[in-house]
């Protein structure tokens, strides 16, 4: 039974990542899967920027142990906030998000996730600018 579940999960993942022509590529005015891929790519780009700015801020403030401790605490709290905010935005009675939001769910979720992440990037960049003064 365990092998069947693993096989089914693998098939579902493979069909999500690959279309008939191979890996799904971002295309803003393409199919829903292609637009979902664009939104996911946008989130990954924002997340990468967030990690870079966070690391840069930690590096600049490396001597301030209290700041680093509080920054880590704030970042963990922000991640919890982001996830809770997304849960609130995408509340669905009955729990089946696809039935509530349809095939656009991935696009909407990743778009909102990218937007929230870029807001956090802006805040950390401001802190980094102030730290560099």
Automatic annotation (TrEMBL):
Query: Which intervals hold domain Lysozyme inhibitor LprI-like N-terminal?
Result: 28-122
Secretion signal span: 1-19
Which domain of life, per UniProt? Answer: Bacteria
Please indicate if the UniProt record lists tRNA processing as a keyword: no
Sorted alphabetically, the keyword list is:
Signal
InterPro entries assigned to the protein according to its UniProt record, in alphabetical order: LprI-like_N (IPR009739)
Q: What protein name does the entry list?
A: Lysozyme inhibitor LprI-like N-terminal domain-containing protein
Q: Which organism is it from?
A: uncultured Sulfurovum sp
Provide the taxonomic classification: Bacteria, Pseudomonadati, Campylobacterota, Epsilonproteobacteria, Campylobacterales
